[in-house]
Amino acid sequence: MSQGRGSAVFAATMVLCLVVLFHFEVAEAATYFVGGKGGWTFNVDSWPNGKRFKAGDTLVFNYNSAQHNVVAVNKGGYQGCTTPRGAKVYKTGKDQIKLVKGQNFFICNFAGHCQSGMKISINAV
After folding, report:
1. For residue range 106-120, what is the model confidence (pLDDT) as tens digits?
2. Cβ contacts of 85 within 8 Å, gap of 6 or more
3. How far apart are CA 24 and CA 22, in angstroms?
4. Residues in domain Phytocyanin (predicted)?
5. Phi (first) and psi of residue 3, to 5 degrees
6. Is CB count within 10 Å lower at the N or C end of the chain?
7. 46-81 tens-digit pLDDT
């Protein structure tokens, strides 16, 4: 009988620990507005410098959707300012993108925009 109660207490303790861990993980996620007040525009490639990003953080891209977009690309797409087949293209002007662990690359694929610094590379830990 006491063995059953001990197992129940252990299970309840484990569930409580998981809830607390999950709460802290969610509470630590941050929201960043890409480019600050200027938004997602030309010459934002240095905007991530000095910031510490984590997987689960959200990037908010604010821009005029008639003039720009946001494309999640791989390293080759970032370096070459190209859009790989199957790349996710965002075009609402108020896009919110959750970072994944590792390198995250974003460009604007309107002609000449990426080459004018409208791209960012972020390493999320």
Report:
1. 999 999 999 999 999
2. none
3. 5
4. 30-125
5. -65, -40
6. N
7. 999 999 999 999 999 999 999 999 999 999 999 999
